[in-house]
Give the backbone structure.
Amino acid sequence: MVNNLKNKNIILAICGGIAVYKVCDLTRKLISLEANVTCIMTESAKQFVSPLTFQTLSNNKVYSDIFDTSSWEIEHISLAQKADIIVVVPATANTMAKLAGGMADNLVCSTVLATKGKVLICPAMNNNMYHHIATEKNIKILQEYKYQFVMPHNGKLACGLIGDGCLAPIEVIVEKIITELE
Ligand SMILES: Cc1cc2nc3c(=O)[nH]c(=O)nc-3n(C[C@H](O)[C@H](O)[C@H](O)COP(=O)(O)O)c2cc1C
């Protein structure tokens, strides 16, 4: 595998799905490839894995509060400007709906809306949620925005069912990031 990720600014925009724990491995892999990784999290994402874990794995501050006053910078704008790529992972049905509608009511959505860099979306959810017409429509809209996707795989879902909706394997996501940043 060619490593073109050295010193690339990668933002992991982490949403509140059960697959958040897999993003720990993604963070470690990207750090091992010498990327600069910054994690931003929705409030729901923090219910699944603590920001402390991502701070430790990424060697970087984790952001989630759009109204954070600890820095003079407008966080979503400065993060968006620095990003070579924003990877929304796991992308929830909720966050994809908000992004499709151009909403900006949290740090993840505001940062995606404000970036001129690439956006890669990696959905993961229950297969009924994934195949709901609303989610399928939102994915189509996001593709029209030229956002790239790593679609979920078929497998055993957290709810116990077998179906589409499992987060794609981390190696597949890393390969896609590498390709996008070529
Ligand atoms: C245990 C549990 C697991 C969940 N897993 C998912 C998931 O895999 N995908 C998804 O779209 N939503 C999932 N949800 C629902 C989201 O957490 C919920 O829609 C939330 O509002 C998403 O917020 P966010 O998009 O701001 O992160 C889950 C909820 C719970 C309680």
